[in-house]
Amino acid sequence: MGFFINPYFFIRRGLYKGIEKNANALSGTLLDFGCGSKPYRKLFNVNEYVGLDIKESGNHKTNKEVDVYYDGITIPFDSHVFDSIFSSEVFEHVFNLDEVMKEINRVCKMEGKLLITVPFVWDEHEIPYDFGRYTSYGIKHVLEKNGFEVLNLEKSTTFVQTIFQLWNSYLFQNVLSNKILKAIFTPILLPPFTLLGIILNVILPKNKDLYHNNIVLAQKVNDIS
Questions:
Q1: What domain range is 185 assigned to?
Q2: Which residues cross the membrane (predicted)?
């Protein structure tokens, strides 16, 4: 059913597959930084899963599953506590990313793993707490200067998939502008474009210069002050 009616089919499938592919690299005690409702919790086989989030954000969903709240500056844990850290679609909402990365480095054990996803192409969301987009080179630079070595970096969608996802998103958010229109026309209007995007992605040359998300697995190699 997700194939037929989900207006965010390409971006969500790309994220899920990318996280699932790298989830086994994380073990031990895991910190989910910016956990929200912990949508990917079931993908991880770890000893302990701790969800951390900030109290005030642009995400007003009520189904959050937060274990610990923090002030946006200091992560309230001792140094070298976590074997693994996971963060999905959070860094674009962090204005002081270098400060936060120092805290992530501090609470991560040496040689601990970090798995993140961060968007390159997407519309503004969780307004006004939307501060940045990252190329693959940009996020690699951020991680390396904050004590992490990138082990694997993948782009979640191709050029063709990204175009069709943006078109479906535009239709869903702007043409189907109210709940009644969405309920009636989403299953009718969007699936043909999704199917066309899948077919053209197979037929046309592959290009990933335009894509939705970076999915990055890194390892802590240095403590930083």
A1: 159-203
A2: 184-204
Question: 7: cis peptide before it, omega within 30°?
Answer: no
Give the DSSP H/E element, type plus range, for residue 49. Answer: strand 48-54
Please report, in angstroms and rounded to a whole number, the separation of the first and last CA atoms in the chain: 49
In this structure, the answer to whether residues 80 and 185 fall within a common structural domain is: no
Residue 206 DSSP one-character state: P
Tell me whether residue 7 is in a domain. Answer: no
Distance CA 80, CA 76 (A): 12
Instruction: Look up the CATH number of the domain holding residue 51.
Output: 3.40.50.150
Quote the CA–CA distance of 50 and 32 in Å, as a whole number. 6
Percentage helix, strand, coil for the chain under 3-state DSSP, each rounded to 5: 40, 20, 40
Burial class (CB in 10 A: 0-12, 13-18, 19+), 27: middle
Query: What is the tens place of the pLDDT at every residue in 4-26?
Result: 689 999 999 999 999 999 999 99
